[in-house]
Amino acid sequence: MLMVLRLRGPLPKPSVKHWRSAAIMGLLMLLGGNGGVTWAEQHVASGLAALLVATVPLWMSVMSWFQTSRSRPGIKEFAGVALGFVGLGILTGPEEMTGGEPVHWIGMAVLIGAALCWSAGSVYNRKAPHPGSPFLAAAMQMLCGGLMLIILGTVTGEWSNLYPDRITLRSGLSLLYLILFGSLIGFSAYIWLLKHTTPAKAATYAYVNPLVAVLIGWLWAGEALTLRVMGAAVIIIGSVVIITWPQRPDTRSVKRQES
Fold first, then answer.
1. Is the pLDDT of residue 79 over 90?
2. pTM of the full predicted structure?
3. Nearest alpha-carbon partner for 203 in 64, 65, 99
């Protein structure tokens, strides 16, 4: 991404404080957040993982209270977060939450920690110093976080589990898709949103992602679309509408200002 940005033209020169904030973001969001989820999903069913990751909007709303911001979450945001949480619980269902196996408590703890790390990084990003380009900031954060993940993977001996000869065309294209759409486009868009909207609105992706996965599975993989899924979809979409619905101005404060 840095190479593409440089090919497009001159970039603002990052300072030491910009690299420091990028390193903190990489530590919290990519190493702690994505890395924690990746490790925990080896031991926790995907339904339960999705439900725990969906607590990100709640943690972000609570953490934003500790920042001096004009867009603090209110009753509407908390109602939307709670409704989305209910919808995701219906979407995953009790059987899919545990996968029919005993709960791996360490994996669950890591997932909660990963959600907290991602939330803390997202809230920190709103006030952290960044270079003028949000895409440069995202590239710096991915570079720092990627290096940290490589170092941790090397220390834990994960290179011994890499078998290049077993990489298929399907898995290679899947990785390319995640690099292009998940990182270069998706993560950059998320970093931009954190600077231009409230944490509760930016974090609605945590509800939408599982819903999109279910719909794509129905359209392309022939998976069943049940009444439970459709009902959960209505609830999840409703929660996003509640969170993103424009807030009515406080007429009392306006009258006081005019007087």
1. no
2. 0.74
3. 64
